[in-house]
Task: inverse folding
């Protein structure tokens, strides 16, 4: 199946360690299960999920030290083509521990190495060099310490005129700066409902509230398309051609880790294949629902995505 090239960018990757204990309590030694190791970080997860759905992407990842080498080996085992960028220090690790008795999950996330302005410039140059003229470039995940909040806006400016299209999934000040751009240099801007409410400055309790907000960002020129995830209430996309809502499948939730990244992977893959927006949104919703059924940092399984996509419910909205 034809698809446009996809390049994912992960500036702050992590080697994800996942385990579980009968109870998570202070002071005493916690006897844990054998750990599972996965390559993690927003863009990496997007590439892993695309691979699980039968698509192709290349991951541009900043790596450093022995942990970085191990993460690169895991990506090779997963069949994800890799372009590496030297990180200014050891690649971070993150730890997820499940409390078996209470069904609760604890996530410990490290900050990553400090970047200099020279590191930032090298990353911008590497991203532009790795992006094919017709590629979808996915910038997803947190910025490492030292990377300015305006990195997404800077990358979008560098990519202008190249034919590559930028997809941004970020948060906080970085999201605010990306949303403030008015020349549609970003192709797709994604956020969750809490982030949308932060940008809006008020609550968005109903679907129509979210739809109006997303449509307003498109009209302002922030992006060609804006996606807002509303958790169990599904996902809404606004484009210049219309508004759609995708239902979230009612499935048992084992772990929510990576669900947002899998959603983005599904949408980008459908978009890269030239699918209509409602179908790409349906694939995204199916990928997210498939991911929450898997444990820890495991992502979606292809067969689950296919089953859920076949049962997708995507509805056009009117303001």
Result:
């Amino acid at each position: 199946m034809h698809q446009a090239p996809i390049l994912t960018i992960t500036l702050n990757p992590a080697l994800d360690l996942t385990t579980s204990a009968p109870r998570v309590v202070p002071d005493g030694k916690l006897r844990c299960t054998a750990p599972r190791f996965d390559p993690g970080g927003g863009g990496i997860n997007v590439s892993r999920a695309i691979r699980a759905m039968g698509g192709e992407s290349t991951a541009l990842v900043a790596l450093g030290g022995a942990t970085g080498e191990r993460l690169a080996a895991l990506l090779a085992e997963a069949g994800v083509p890799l372009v590496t960028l030297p990180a200014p220090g050891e690649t971070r690790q993150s730890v997820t521990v499940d409390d078996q008795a209470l069904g609760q999950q604890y996530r410990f996330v490290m900050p990553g190495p400090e970047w200099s302005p020279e590191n930032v410039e090298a990353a911008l140059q590497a991203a532009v060099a790795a992006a094919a003229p017709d590629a979808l470039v996915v910038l997803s995940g947190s910025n490492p310490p030292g990377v300015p909040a305006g990195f997404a806006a800077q990358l979008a400016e560098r990519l202008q005129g190249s034919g590559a299209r930028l997809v941004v999934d970020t948060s906080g000040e970085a999201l605010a700066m990306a949303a403030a751009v008015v020349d549609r240099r970003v192709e797709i801007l994604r956020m969750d409902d809490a982030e949308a409410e932060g940008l809006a400055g008020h609550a968005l309790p109903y679907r129509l509230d979210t739809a109006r907000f997303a449509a307003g960002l498109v009209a302002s020129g922030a992006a060609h398309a804006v996606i807002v995830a509303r958790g169990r209430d599904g996902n809404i996309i606004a484009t210049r051609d219309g508004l759609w809502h995708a239902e979230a499948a009612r499935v048992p939730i084992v772990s929510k880790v990576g669900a947002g990244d899998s959603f983005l992977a599904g949408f980008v893959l459908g978009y890269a294949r030239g699918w209509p927006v409602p179908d790409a949104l349906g694939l995204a919703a199916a990928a997210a629902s498939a991911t929450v059924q898997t444990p820890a940092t495991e992502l979606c399984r292809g067969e689950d995505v296919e089953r859920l996509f076949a049962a997708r419910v995507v509805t056009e909205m009117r303001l």
User: Anything to note?
Assistant: The chain has a mean pLDDT of 94. The CA atoms of residues 261 and 303 lie 18 Å apart. The domain at 6-317 is CATH 3.40.1190.20 (UDP-N-acetylmuramoyl-L-alanine:D-glutamate ligase).
